[in-house]
Amino acid sequence: MGGPLRKVALFGECMLEFQGAAFGAMQQGFGGDSLNTAVYLARCGRDLGISVSYATGLGDDRWSAALMERWSAERVGLDLVRRIPGRLPGLYLIEVDGHGERSFSYWRDTSAAKAYFDVPQTPLEATLDQWDALYVSGISLAILPESGRERLLAAMQAVRRRGGSVVFDNNFRPRLWPDRAQALDCYARAFATANIALVTAEDHQALHQMDSLDQAISHAQYLPSEEIIIKRGADATLVRSPQGEWGQAVTERVPQVVDTTAAGDSFAAGYLSRRLSGASSLEASLFGNRLAARVIQYRGALIPQQAMADLV
Q: DSSP 3-state assignment of 2?
């Protein structure tokens, strides 16, 4: 990944976000797992020589234009965005309980991101030789129709073949998959391609329908990716370096968990910002945990930049 400028592409879906109670006041924003990671990575990598671009589909509407303005203000590159006439961004509603845990309602079946690969060649596919790293999540794969999913997997393989890094984050949402068998097959191929696996233990357990979290963690330790990061909530993060050595990165305690939205997304960004800059996988995990601890003390997917200014 050498050189002073490290170019990272992330593929996924950004949706309009509304947070609040049904028929009550709503706070307006935007988010999506890979977009959240892109923004936090742009913030964390700003002074480290990391360039971030986000690949997705958007419409030709005012909401889509406003999203692009906000991404650009965060220094997220727009060169991989496809504007698709007649399409709209997806939308989701977040409701947060008294413990900071959230529930989601989605309106995304015809979102523009799902149609990203509905052309002979996308901006991402046309520039695969430019990227030092490509980040994809389980949700990135799940939102696509089968043909688009195959092309995204092929893009991941192309980046690996030319010596780039492929990062797969296992975010698993059962409702996005037509059946579990298809999800299992797709995840197995993604992990086999990725050299960096970011694994949320609870999602791994849900995907494989395992009886216990400990069983899921043991299973995840034998994934084929060279570098494996297993996130276990408040417990220490398990880290396997490319050399095969295991270590633990402690998490940071916070006075109050306000909102767990984007905890994993911000961890991924913090981790990649340090890893791409030469830190060890353990050092990068410690920073990822530190950033995630800050994020969960604020409401919404993307916290104010000044709230994390002392970290970057």
A: coil
User: What values do phi and psi take at 79, rounded to 5?
Assistant: -65, -15
Half-sphere exposure of 112 (CA within 13 A, CB side): 23
- Can you read off the two tokens belonging to residue 65? 């234009």
Beta strands per DSSP E along 191-251 = 196-200, 227-232, 235-240, 246-249
> Hey, is 217 helix, strand or coil?
helix
Contacts of 137 (CB under 8 A, 6+ apart): 12, 33, 34, 37, 168, 169, 170, 171
- pLDDT at 3 > cutoff 70: no
pLDDT tens by residue, 237-258: 999 999 999 999 999 999 999 9
- Sequence-separated (6 or more) residues with CB below 8 Å from residue 17: 28, 29, 30, 31, 91, 92, 94, 300, 301
265 belongs to the catalytic site: yes
Q: Is 0.90 topped by the overall pTM?
A: yes
Helix (H, G, I), strand (E, B) or coil at 37: helix
- CA-to-CA distance for 231 and 145, rounded, in angstroms? 29
Among residues 297, 80, 92, the alpha carbon closest in space to that of 176 is found at 92
Q: Which of 33, 132, 169, 265 is catalytic?
A: 265
Q: Using an 8 Å Cβ cutoff, are 44 and 270 in contact?
A: yes
